[in-house]
Amino acid sequence: MDRATGQLIELAVNLGVPLVMLGLGYGIGHYREKAHYRSIKAREVRLLKLPVTNFKPSKKDLEGRVGTLVAGNVVIANDHFKRFAAGLRNIFGGRIRSYETLVDRARREAVLRMLREAEKMKAVMVVNLRVETSIIGANAQGGGGAVEVLAFGTALLAK
Amino acid sequence: MPLKSNANIILTNIESIPGREILEHYGIVNGSTVRAKHIGRDIMAGLKNIVGGELKGYTELLGETRQEALDRMVEQAAALGANAVVNVRFATSSVAQGAAELFAYGTAVKVEEA
C-alpha cells in the first residue's frame, strides 16, 4: 500500500464516520420524531376528558374531593444531525427549530405521563400544573442536547 | 415514573388538602439528593445521542432520585408530627459534570383526620 492510498483511507474514515453519524441521525431521528408526535397527539386526544389547569382550584372544584400529588418526567435527546444543524445556526443566529421540537415533545410527553398517573387513580381533574425543564449533560464533551422535563400537579378525586 | 408518598402523609402542590381542614403548620420541610449517572447508562445514552429520542435510563434515574428527595422530605414531615405536606415544589440543578441535585420542598401541616 503506497502513501497515497493510506491517506485516502484516512480521509475516508475521518470524513466518513461523521457523515454516517449525521446520516443516521437525520434518517432515524426524523422517523422517530414523527412517530413520537403521532403517539403524543393520539394520547392527547384520548386524555382530553381529563381537564388540567395551571391555577389553584376553586371552592367548587374542591367540594367532595380529595387530592394528591401526581407527576411525570421524561428525558429526551436530540439526534446528531439536529445538534449539528443547531451548531450552524449558532453562527448566523435565528430560530433553532430543531430544539423547539425537542422541548415541545418533552413537555407534552411529561404532561401526558402525569395525566396517565391521574387517570389510573380515576381523577376527575388535575389542578395547579407546573412544568419544569432542565438540561442534562448527556455526554462527557459537555454537548448537552438532552432535556429533562418534570410535570406535576394535584389530582382531584371523588371522595 | 410516578412519585409516591408514604401511606400516612398526603402531598399536594396547592395550599390546602382538599376535603380536610388544616389544623396546624410546622413550617418548611425539604429533602435533597445529589446523584451521578453510572457508566452503563452513559454508554447507552451516548448511542441514543446519535439517533435522538427518549433516554429511558436517565428518565428512570432522575425519577428515582427525585423520589428519594421526596422521601426525605416526607420523613422530615413525619418526624415533626405532620400528616400532610402542602405546596410541594421541585427544583433540579446540575452541581457538577454528570451529577444532578434534585430538591423537593413544601410546608408540613397537620390536617383533620378523614
Helical fraction of chain A equals 40-55%
Helix count of chain A equals 4
> Would you tell me the overall average pLDDT of chain B?
87
Going across the biggest sheet of chain A, name each strand in turn. 1-3-2
- Specify the biggest β-sheet of chain B: 4 strands, mixed
Biggest sheet statistics of chain A:
3 strands, antiparallel
Give the N-to-C terminal Cα separation of chain B: 28 Å
Report the end-to-end length of chain A measured between terminal Cα atoms. Answer: 81 Å
Helix-strand topology string of chain B: EEHEHEE
Number of helices of chain B: 2
**Proportion of beta-strand residues of chain A:** 15-25%
Oligomer: heterodimer
Helicity level of chain B? 25-40%
The strand count of chain A comes to: 3
Radius of gyration of chain B, CA atoms, in whole angstroms: 17 Å
Spans where pLDDT lies below 50 across 5 or more residues of chain B: none
Helix/strand structural class of chain B: alpha+beta
Strand content of chain B: 35-45%
What does the model show?
The complex is a heterodimer of chains A (159) and B (114). Chain A is of the alpha+beta class. Chain A has helices at residues 3-46, 59-62, 80-92, 97-120, and strands at residues 65-77, 125-136, 146-158. Chain A has a three-stranded antiparallel β-sheet. The radius of gyration of chain A is 22 Å and the shape is elongated. By secondary structure, chain B is an alpha+beta fold. Chain B is built from two helices and five strands. In chain B, strands 1-4-5-2 form a four-stranded mixed β-sheet. The longest helix of chain B is centred in the middle third of the chain and has 24 residues, at 56-79. The radius of gyration of chain B is 17 Å and the shape is elongated. Classes of the chains: A alpha+beta (159), B alpha+beta (114). At the A-B interface, helix 1, strand 1, helix 3, strand 2 and strand 3 of A face strand 1, helix 1, strand 3, helix 2 and strand 4 of B. Strand 1 of chain A pairs antiparallel with strand 3 of chain B.
